[in-house]
Write a structure and sequence with these properties.
Layout (H helix, E strand, L loop, with lengths): L6 E4 L3 H9 L5 E2 L14 H19 L4 E11 L2 E3 L5 H11 L3 E12 L2 E14 L4 H8 L15 H7 E5 L2 H5 L3 H9 L28 H7 L1
Parallel strand pairs: 1-2, 1-3
Antiparallel strand pairs: 3-4, 3-5, 5-6, 6-7
Helix pairs in contact: 3-4
Length: 223
């Protein structure tokens, strides 16, 4: 029943919801009502942590006995944070700026629970876009809803492959949650998937991987 779950996702992102469900978690969803901040003098990590903490605390006030996960994702190009587009023209302009370049995607996650300090984690991935013509941008925007996505794009699915050359680092981080770190962080709060193991299937067609390459650290670790 609503209100009975010990684990609550403080987000209206369908991608975060699917990632957690594919990993085997059971949870309630409560969407906090707030304007996400994009303060220029804060770093990407500081901005996303601030927004994630605000989301978690708003929902935590409503569900004080639950474990609450808040998250926020921002894109950064040349040190400038890029959030969600205001309208279609803004979405076109954002994709035009990202065209042919490497940008960063930062997701911060804050987990709050009663009688213990919040857990905070941040993950940064790098993404290279293809060179996109105006026609390619128009075609891409005709296939997705850009307005709920930082950077006006989604990395997953066939549409993501049209605009992305590679992702360096966590791919699920670009989608909205760095699951490699979220799963063990939730375990510290007694929240585990039904299988008690992280085996994301990503069967939803929207979450199939775009081209990915290993980070330098990952390559060195496997050698």
């Amino acid at each position: 029943m609503p209100g009975d779950s010990p684990f609550v996702l403080a987000s209206n992102s369908p991608r975060r919801r699917i990632l957690l469900r594919e990993a085997g978690f059971t949870f309630e969803i409560l969407s906090p009502q707030l304007d996400e901040r994009e303060t220029p003098h804060l770093s990407l990590r500081e901005l996303t942590i601030t927004n994630a903490l605000r989301k978690a605390r708003i929902v935590g006030a409503e569900r004080p006995s639950a474990v609450i996960l808040g998250a926020d994702t921002l894109v950064s190009l040349d040190g400038e944070p890029i959030g969600k587009p205001r309208n279609l023209n803004h979405a076109r302009a954002i994709l035009g700026r990202l065209s042919g370049k490497v940008h960063e995607v930062c997701t911060s996650v804050v987990i709050v629970a009663p009688n213990r300090p919040p857990a905070v984690l941040s993950e940064v991935s790098r993404v290279r876009f293809r060179d996109l013509s105006d026609a390619a941008i128009a075609d891409y925007l005709a296939t997705i809803n850009p307005f709920d996505k930082a950077g006006a794009y989604a990395a997953q699915g066939a549409a993501g492959g049209k605009i992305i050359v590679w992702v360096e680092g966590s791919f699920t981080n670009v989608i909205g949650l760095p699951m490699e770190r979220v799963v063990p962080a939730l375990a510290q709060f007694g929240i585990a998937p039904a299988s008690n193991a992280f085996r994301p299937r990503l069967q939803d067609p929207e979450l199939k991987h775009a081209p990915v390459r290993a980070s330098k650290h990952d390559r060195e670790t496997r050698q």
